[in-house]
Specification:
Blueprint lengths: L2 E4 L6 E3 L12 E3 L3 H11 L3 E5 H5 L5 H11 L2 E9 L7 H17 L4 E6 L9 H20 L3 E4 L10 H7 L6 E2 L3 H6 L4 H7 L8 E2 L1 E3 L4 E3 L8 H11 L5 E3 L8 H16 L2
Parallel strand pairs: 1-4, 1-12, 4-5, 5-6, 6-7, 7-8, 9-12
Antiparallel strand pairs: 2-3, 10-11
Helix pairs in contact: 1-3, 1-10, 4-5, 8-9
Pfam family, one: AP_endonuc_2
Organism: Pseudarthrobacter humi
InterPro entries: IolE/XylAMocC-like, Xyl_isomerase-like_sf, Xyl_isomerase-like_TIM-brl
């Protein structure tokens, strides 16, 4: 399995302010330097990087700059993360327009995968139809990704309508998109990550590894929290998945490179057993 790291830790997750008034421009972003992030990730020994669609879009008019950064660092762009509400019919075309752009850019920069989260929670409450709409939209995302030679996967996420294991079970029969387990988000939603991986082994197309502490709530480098990573890695191996393991840490009070190194050393020790 190849080890990669997500650039989110260099600045944390934010959104593009233009998206407040124009849904087609509502990208995920981190405000840190992608050059610094990629260089740090490479210096620790990771082979790949995952970026947000918004950070990738910043290089749309200057592609050679990002290719130079990746080439000099000796890492590849493994995957691109994006997301949307998906349940509102009126704005879905603009959301899919943005995802189409993200997939096109991902392919142009050599990525293999498109990872998406989402499924909005309505103020008035979630309906059965919301899951149906989400499933249908994710099938369209899959079509978009495949049109650019990418593999698409869905990432359950806190604050969406797919937080808990029961909610994931509602969605999975309604869509053919692949599954990207995020170990910490699954745990925070009340699941046993290893059990979920074992339940959907044939759907796994991508993996996010992240540790978690329930009280006080915090995402942590691997081996620093409460999750049973020996069992998680065993479940991944049992599934037959043998590709990118992307380590992710949404935020970190210290040096992001130091956090990446902590996770790398822990993961290498686990994988050597």
């Amino acid at each position: 399995m190849k080890l990669g790291y997500c650039s989110i830790t260099w600045g944390g997750v934010v959104g593009h302010p233009q998206g407040v008034t124009s849904v087609k421009d509502l990208f995920y972003m981190t405000h840190g330097s992608m050059r610094d992030a990629i260089q740090d990730i490479a210096s620790v020994g990771y082979q790949g990087v995952e970026m947000f669609d918004g950070n990738l879009a910043e290089y749309a008019e200057k592609p050679e700059e990002l290719k130079e950064i990746l080439g000099t660092a000796g890492v590849e762009l493994a995957s691109v993360y994006t997301g949307a509400n998906f349940i509102y019919a009126d704005i879905l075309p603009d959301e899919l327009h943005r995802i189409h752009r993200a997939a096109e850019l991902a392919a142009n920069f050599g990525a293999e995968r498109l990872v998406v989260g989402g499924g909005a929670r309505r103020a008035a409450g979630t309906t059965d139809e919301d899951y149906q709409r989400l499933g249908e939209a994710l099938d369209r995302v899959t079509d978009i990704a495949e049109s650019f030679g990418l593999s698409a996967s869905y990432h359950p996420h806190l604050s969406t309508i797919v937080e808990s294991p029961e909610e994931l079970d509602r969605l999975m029969p309604l869509t053919r998109i692949g599954f990207c387990p995020d170990t910490a988000h699954l745990a925070a939603g009340g699941a046993d990550p290893a059990a979920v991986i074992r339940k959907y082994p044939d759907r796994i197309r991508h993996v996010h590894l992240k540790d978690f502490q329930k009280d006080p709530f915090n995402f942590l480098p691997l081996g620093q929290g409460e999750l049973d990573f020996p069992d998680i890695i065993a479940a991944i191996r049992e599934s037959g998945y043998d590709s990118w393991l992307m380590v992710e840490l949404d935020n970190y009070d210290g040096d992001p490179r130091a956090a990446a190194e902590l996770s790398k050393k822990y993961l290498e020790k686990l994988l050597s057993n």
